[in-house]
Design brief:
single chain; alpha/beta; TIM Barrel; two-stranded antiparallel ribbon; 11 helices; 43% helix; 18% strand
């Protein structure tokens, strides 16, 4: 084969391979995972009837949960209630200001619950403690460095540390998106990310773009649907009733291990709407 023919062949072969890969991405298999719920969704019900609420969640099809506060329960009490309801707690949320100074205590609590992940729900740190107000790019870089340290210790304890986004992480300084800097500066060995797809969307970005680039950094997702209001703010609604199409998101999430439905506000009965959320995810993942 002469050089001209070889070049033509390689070009054609490359085009074919690219087309094949593109086709495969377009028909990616959505992972079949047990339905999970972020317990912040039932933050008003749990203090009134902790065990009863957990049993209701099990009845509507929830299998896994993620904690957001422990409601003055000891780790043993919390674990017992979950076991009685047939639920498994995979992960928990802590703001960094609470997590870092009491890390040993929360690791011990996590071990009793049998957690796989400990998630920072909000950074809220400044390189200069005297600084007040919004976090700057330098603050986010400092947060990333701190995450690496905490993540290394949590990994040594047999779990993974991660960060959960809202919309503020998609702010910019000098053209740099804070969330991008977190991804770049954190060590993948010690820090994973729990993408809240609803807040990524509300922050003006497409979850698919991040998942497609580094799917391994995102073993967990929060799934929530959003509707933009006339004032420009977003309202949380039942899955499938808003603006977010989860099919391409789940297809792109090839590193996904757990997902958690999170509905922060309700128009009707919370358990009825959460059941609709579970049914929506069931149709997508089976």
């Amino acid at each position: 084969m002469n050089d001209s023919s070889r070049r033509s062949f390689l070009k054609a072969a490359g085009a074919f391979a690219a087309a094949a890969c593109a086709g495969k991405r377009g028909t990616a298999e959505i992972p079949h995972l047990p339905p999970g719920l972020q317990l912040y969704s039932v933050r008003e019900q749990l203090p009134k009837d902790f065990d009863g609420t957990l049993h209701q969640l099990s009845t509507i099809g929830i299998k896994e949960v993620e904690a957001a506060g422990y409601f003055n329960k000891s780790a043993t009490e919390f674990r017992h209630s979950l076991d009685q309801a047939g639920l498994r707690c995979v992960s928990t949320h802590h703001p960094f200001a609470q997590l870092k100074p009491q890390l040993d205590q929360w690791i011990e609590y996590a071990h009793t619950l049998g957690l796989e992940y400990m998630i920072c729900s909000w950074a809220g740190v400044h390189r200069d403690p005297a600084h007040k107000g919004d976090m700057t790019l330098d603050d986010w870089r400092y947060a990333a460095d701190e995450f690496n340290k905490v993540g290394e210790k949590i990994r040594g304890a047999g779990m993974s540390f991660g960060y959960h986004n809202h919309t503020v992480e998609f702010g910019t300084e000098n053209g740099v998106i804070f969330f991008d800097e977190l991804l770049k500066r954190t060590d993948p060995r010690y820090v994973v990310f729990e993408m809240d797809c609803g807040w990524v969307f509300a922050g003006g970005h497409n979850p698919v773009d991040y998942l497609s680039k580094t799917p391994g950094r995102f073993p967990m997702l929060h799934v929530k649907d959003m509707v933009k209001q006339p004032d420009g703010k977003y309202r949380n609604v039942v899955l499938g009733h808003g603006s977010i199409d989860y099919k391409p998101i789940l297809e792109a999430a090839t590193g996904l291990k757990h997902y958690f439905i999170e509905q922060e506000e309700f128009q009707g009965d919370p358990m009825t709407e959460l059941r609709e959320d579970v049914e929506y995810m069931h149709k997508l993942t089976t």
